[in-house]
C-alpha cells in the first residue's frame, strides 16, 4: 500500500487544524485573557486542557461514532460534508470581514471565558470553554471524523499519525500564542483580527474545495 496518500492526508490534517485554531475562537480568546489576567502559565494550562479534551474526543470518535457511521454506510459521506462545511465557513468569514460587518461572535466571548476561568481554574475552564462551543463539536463530527475515515486503511499507524497531526497543528499556534502572552503583547487587535480572518478564511475555503474535489473524484 502506498504511503503517499497517507502523507498527504496527515499534512492536510496538520494545516487544517492550524488554520482552525488560529482563527480567533472562544478557546484562543479565553487563553489570551487568561494570559493577561493571570500570566502565560495559566494560559498554557488552559490550552493544555483544550488539547486533553481534543484527545478524549478523538478516541471517542475512533472507538465509537466512526465505527457506527461505517456500519450504516454513512462514513463515505463525511468528506464531502466536511469540505462543504469548510468552504462555506471560509467564504462567510471572508465576506463578513470585507463587508465591514461586526466581527464574529466567537471573538467576543472573552468575558464569558474569563468568568469561567475565574470560577473554575484554568484547567477546568480549558475543558468547559470548548465543550460549550457548538463549533468545536461540529468540527470534530465532520472534519475530524472525515480525516479518521481517510486514515483507517493504515490502521493504528494512520490513526497515531493523525492524532499527532491534529495536536501538532494546534500546538503550532498555541506555542507562539503563549510566547506572545508571556511578553504582554496584544495578540488580537481589531486590525490583526480582520487581516487574519481574510487570510485564514481563504485558506479554510481552499481546503474545503480540495476535499470536495477529492470526494467527486472518489465517487467518479
Structural features, described:
This protein has 220 residues and is mainly α. It is 83% helix and 0% strand. It is built from nine helices and no strands. The protein has helices spanning 4-22, 26-38, 40-71, 78-98, 110-120, 122-131, 134-151, 155-182, 190-219. Helix 1 (4-22) runs parallel beside helix 8. The longest helix is centred in the N-terminal third of the chain and has 32 residues, at 40-71. 40% of the residues are buried.
Brief descriptors of the model:
220 residues, mainly alpha, globular
Biggest β-sheet: count, sense, barrel? none
**DSSP helix count?**
9
DSSP strand count:
0
Secondary-structure-derived class: mainly alpha
Portion of residues in beta strands equals under 5%
User: What would the principal axes of the Cα set say about the shape?
Assistant: globular
Describe the structure concisely for a colleague.
The protein is mostly helical and 220 residues long.
Write the layout of secondary structure elements.
Elements: H1 4-22, H2 26-38, H3 40-71, H4 78-98, H5 110-120, H6 122-131, H7 134-151, H8 155-182, H9 190-219
